[in-house]
Amino acid sequence: MFKIALNAGHGINTPGKRCLKTIDKNETREWYLNQRICNKIQEKLKAYTGYELIRLDDTTGKTDISLKTRTDKANKFGADFYLAIHHNAGVGGKSGGGVISIVYKTVKEGTVTASWQKDLYDAVIKNTGLKGNRSVPLQKQDLHEVRESKMPAVLLECGFMDSKTDTPIILTEDFADKTAKAVVEVIVKKANLKLKNIPAREKPKTTQKPLNNTEKSNSEIANEVIRGLWGNGEERKVRLGSAGYNYSEIQSLVNSILSKKG
Ligand SMILES: [Zn+2]
After folding, report:
1. pTM, rounded to two decimals
2. Which residues contact 189 (CB under 8 A, 6 or more apart)?
3. Could you tell me the distance, in angstroms and rounded to a whole number, from the CA of residue 10 to the centre of ligand 1?
4. 110 and 134 both lie in a single domain
């Protein structure tokens, strides 16, 4: 069972953490953007089995859970992977920005953590196209979450809230969805998660019946055709064919029934 500790950075009312007013008049809170991606990650992971996930943040956003509480919880849980979702600031209303994937400052090349960092960055860029102009998109920093968590930990900054380029993009549902999809792809691959088997009763009903597995006899269908249930001409031909019946067999039955009646 692969254990994931996921969290959305900050809370709704954390001071300062919001989009720049001149770009986004609503001053959308960073927490809102962070939790939207986290929720989508959780939703998409539901299609898979082989993992356990906890959220370290207050999912209502009311409380900005302290970073210590977050990492303590992840450590106690014994998580195999720690992911913090954030959005950045620092472009000051100019253009440019992009996605940044951050690990602790001592992380070495070739380690599991470095591979999470790179794979997440690559997947998010591939899915969203938000490459930006950051010269160091794979950063090593002395941040509490990546330092105090005992497992591979990545803090993903999903674009800038004060960038003319990034902000209109990161506000969209589509961006959140693609980012979550990217994260899930990486988790599925690294944790070797398997798609859940869909129980038979939940299998989507196919509109086309398979050939040679028709439920009604040809004469029943011929009578339905005569009652007008299968349309006429080309429509009849197409509908019978896609339902798995042999059009010419049905049609000759129809003709013979009608000639007997006549
Ligand atoms: Zn943040």
Report:
1. 0.76
2. 119
3. 6
4. yes
